[in-house]
Amino acid sequence: MSMRVAFLHPDLGIGGAERLVVDTALGLQNLGYTVDIYTSHHDRDRCFEETRDGTLNVYNISPPFPRHILGKFHILLAHLRQLHLTWNLIQNQKITYDVFFVDQLSTCVPFLRKLTGTRVVFYCHFPDKLLANGVFIEDPAKRPKPSLLKQVYRYPMDWWEELTTRQSDVILSNSRFSRRVFKASFPSIRTVPRVVYPGINIQAYEAKANLGDADVKLIASSRPTIVSLNRFEQKKNLALAGHAFAKLRQREEVKANTDLERLRLVIAGGYDPRLKDNLQTLSSIIDVIKYYKLTYKIVTPSSSTLFLDNLPVPVTNSTFSGSDDADVVLLLSFSTSQRTYLLSSPSIALLYTPTNEHFGIGPVEGMCAGLPVLAVGEGGPVESLGPTSINADSPLSSPVDCSPDLNNEDKDLRGAVGWLKPADSDIWASALYEIVSLSQKERTQLAERAKERARRTFGMDVMAHGVEGALKEAISKGLCGRIDPEGIMWLILGILGTVLGIVYSGVFFLKD
């Protein structure tokens, strides 16, 4: 009899965390597990196809709580939304599970354990307490100090995060970098997380692009293409791609080359019009494009319900007959067929711009597709692209700056399989010129090494077996001790009442 597993994920949209959930669920299904996914938000127009075509069983339980109030209280409302999801899951007496797999937000962990008696595996991407102020900075001395009011607001949130995470039966981390940060951030948790790298369905990245697909036709081009795959969020630093691309095109060597002078950039990623951050990021990228006097065009999949007329910026800054004429294409919430096309010819490089990203699935996607990858030399990409000799369990004194050994003709996978550079647009422009100047032989050899490392370390089957081991370990501990549901609900109300009181007091203090 197969084991039944329930996944809990806050928002099943399009992003690296969501890709991990989907591929983990698929991997476990392939191993014979029955998997159900519970989420508080699942937009069928902004999600991965496996979550809407019946491949995966998804329960979308919409909460009565908004994502934010006037752009504030995101984490408090995220706690409430997940408690609502948890309560509805527990109330459904028709389905029982052998183990729970909780992703990103640990709010529900003690309640799942104590109200159902079932063990919980928690997959920690990154401590939320470190992301509350934007981009993570590892050196505490260099982190911006939040206001007193925000410190008062965050204190119970951070305490709750550490308390609930500590209740997990097994804790997983998505990289050695994340594990290192986890240990430093949660001193009361003695458990050392087990590293299970996100894995992807490599076969899906070996598929050939369907040039007759309606979505592909929207972005198809004969121009050599540089691709960036990342959500439209400020912390993803997409502006770095725009600056580096523009500076590359300004180089005299590029202007003199009839092929390279036609280079274009496609920035593709999840876009949610509900999020102010997404709107501001799109606007800021267009400002960069205009600064360099480049042309752009915004595109969405043919099935998208996102109306371009409602965007806060013009859809284009010129007149085109098609996307082939634009220097920069901004693709909002791409489809699977579009991703497949962008990771194949005529694309010649993939950019990954975030700094201190806890893992970063983008570089692995590029590796699987055999594309040269350029990423910031900090955080998770150091482990996926860099030399294996780098000790990711210790803090780096400076960003990694390395390139692959293009003279390495054997199958040695210990060296770098991509470019890791500091987040400086001039340095990136130089690295990009090196990449676009690669010979076909160099590209082929590098692609073979990158694909082989991806198969050995980041394949969906490798991840599935890693997660399976964690699930079995949790189940082997037996059932948890259960407590009275009414008692724990009063506990929840008491904690939330205290938090709301603190928040109200802070808001009142601000008005005064």
From TrEMBL:
<keyword id="KW-0812">Transmembrane</keyword>
<dbReference type="Pfam" id="PF13439">
    <property type="entry name" value="Glyco_transf_4"/>
</dbReference>
<keyword id="KW-0808">Transferase</keyword>
<dbReference type="GO" id="GO:0005789">
    <property type="term" value="C:endoplasmic reticulum membrane"/>
</dbReference>
<feature type="domain" description="Glycosyltransferase subfamily 4-like N-terminal">
    <location>
        <begin position="14"/>
        <end position="203"/>
    </location>
</feature>
<protein>
    <recommendedName>
        <fullName>Alpha-1,3/1,6-mannosyltransferase ALG2</fullName>
        <ecNumber>2.4.1.132</ecNumber>
        <ecNumber>2.4.1.257</ecNumber>
    </recommendedName>
</protein>
<feature type="transmembrane region" description="Helical">
    <location>
        <begin position="488"/>
        <end position="510"/>
    </location>
</feature>
<comment type="similarity">
    <text>Belongs to the glycosyltransferase group 1 family.</text>
</comment>
<keyword id="KW-0256">Endoplasmic reticulum</keyword>
<dbReference type="InterPro" id="IPR027054">
    <property type="entry name" value="ALG2"/>
</dbReference>
<dbReference type="GO" id="GO:0004378">
    <property type="term" value="F:GDP-Man:Man(1)GlcNAc(2)-PP-Dol alpha-1,3-mannosyltransferase activity"/>
</dbReference>
<keyword id="KW-0328">Glycosyltransferase</keyword>
<dbReference type="InterPro" id="IPR028098">
    <property type="entry name" value="Glyco_trans_4-like_N"/>
</dbReference>
<keyword id="KW-1133">Transmembrane helix</keyword>
<comment type="function">
    <text>Mannosylates Man(2)GlcNAc(2)-dolichol diphosphate and Man(1)GlcNAc(2)-dolichol diphosphate to form Man(3)GlcNAc(2)-dolichol diphosphate.</text>
</comment>
<comment type="pathway">
    <text>Protein modification; protein glycosylation.</text>
</comment>
<dbReference type="GO" id="GO:0102704">
    <property type="term" value="F:GDP-Man:Man(2)GlcNAc(2)-PP-Dol alpha-1,6-mannosyltransferase activity"/>
</dbReference>
<keyword id="KW-0472">Membrane</keyword>
